């Protein structure tokens, strides 16, 4: 792409980022890759292929489709987080607030206000986006501390939300138990094991929407300003663009996509769980993005899907006979997927600084 | 009145915990630009090491041994982390944060896999488990242990920073790291020292947290770390005294709000306090009302150079 012929592209090559990240939306091959991935994802529910070790059952069994749907949701969520982290250079530790907000908000609107799914989701999205404008503005203010101030303030806000959910005020949030999905208010299309394939389509639709939006916006002039803010914020303000407004825009877009992702997550997992509110949940998103490749087209998608799949398989491995046969000091850590994934992540920071997407690019050169 | 005394002393105990965590964070960030997410993990491991020790020895000597072992565990863990992982990433603050994030996920999960997810009761010697009457209120004795320890650490760190050669290097490094290394001083040694010191303080906080809450659990460290961050933002990154005042404010606000407004509101009140402080604090380029007043009445003081921050 941008690395092959800088002379042929002329002045365009100069606008390319340090890793050749931008200006790639056009180009035949990227369309081919996108089309190929889309085709593969579209045919998955029709394949009865049995892949031992990698999956529990055939590809189109309810269990596998459920896992795929979860992978797709997290691919979309990681992409929304990358709008902040990879594209604009903002390290947020409060993204979980919006995901949990989408899930809990929709569920509460259905349960307490007797709404059906669509109006409840729309209300949550509208109210959540308004809240994102306000909290985003407050989080972006502590300029004196640089990016770290933003990181810590978003963390504090998300923690307030997490505590609120955990304390279960008036039996509203269900505390540690979480809230089960209100099946009566949801179209019967998305309820029950027999309809897992519809949930899969929903998750795929969500990922497609997020990818289309994020790719389009990052290729637009606004996306170029985001990238400039990431690389040199001072220069952006000298050039007459307002970094604050652009950062706020990135924050609101990422939060809105996360809110929507929360709604899909609610449907995929059939409930809102307090784990989605914690700071650890945001850190997991960060791990996904970095593992896949921050600020790249496919990196966050690969990272999100791979992380969830690994988490699922490692959990299955942890309770398998092979691990149970190992001596106790070895078997104990293997039964906790986060130990393996956290260690893997630390290794990846040294071994693959640009993430998996960068590894692929290195080979192609 | 009784309640107020009890709440104040309990709040001070909590503030002591926050101070122990936040002072290490602030020193590490101020000197090395590393936002140490593994700090809470160090605390967790140290608290479990202390719990094992206290169980094995028992009684008053058990607590003393636990304090020693816990602090040393935190110190050793932090020193090893710095030497093995952080040192190789100097000048790449984002990667340093990512490594500590990885550790903060893996280490508590590791502790949980060995010790179980449930919290364990921390054995507290009889001398510390009772209460003592202060101005008519029955205050648990362990609050005074926490307050005393935090005061000792405050004085100790202050003396270390102002009276020793290492302290001089650390303070100079916080001010302008490039200049210090240009003058031929080995800053990396100061880095290791500060990181290990922070780990030791986190370890001490782990043991004292076990005494304060009466139990240890795998995810306590992460929970406390978040309040450590809040204290650091409110107090600023450049003075231990500022961190101490901020810890005091956060601990007291949390306790008062929990009792006088509603149970569980304390944590929310802390976040509101944080938002207020951020909004009231003047940002560069836009001066606050107080600064404007001072500028009118007094000639401007020479501006201090802003250290190269902008990590994330």
UniProtKB/TrEMBL annotation, chain A:
It is a multi-pass membrane protein. GO terms for cellular component: plasma membrane. The keyword Transmembrane applies. The keyword Membrane applies. Keywords: Cell membrane, Membrane, Transmembrane, Transmembrane helix. Residues 1-22 are annotated as: Disordered. The chain crosses the membrane at residues 31-49, 61-81, 117-138, 145-165, 199-223, 244-268, 338-359. GO terms for molecular function: branched-chain amino acid transmembrane transporter activity. It is found in: Cell membrane. It comes from the Bacteria. This is Branched-chain amino acid ABC transporter permease. It comes from Streptomyces radicis. The lineage of its organism: Bacteria, Bacillati, Actinomycetota, Actinomycetes, Kitasatosporales.
Automatic annotation (TrEMBL), chain B:
InterPro entries: ABC_transp_permease, BCAA_transport_permease. GO terms for biological process: amino acid transport. Keywords: Amino-acid transport, Cell membrane, Membrane, Transmembrane, Transmembrane helix, Transport. The keyword Cell membrane applies. GO terms for molecular function: transmembrane transporter activity. It is a multi-pass membrane protein. Its main location: membrane. One of its GO terms (cellular component) is plasma membrane. Belongs to the binding-protein-dependent transport system permease family. LivHM subfamily. This is Branched-chain amino acid ABC transporter permease. It comes from Streptomyces radicis.
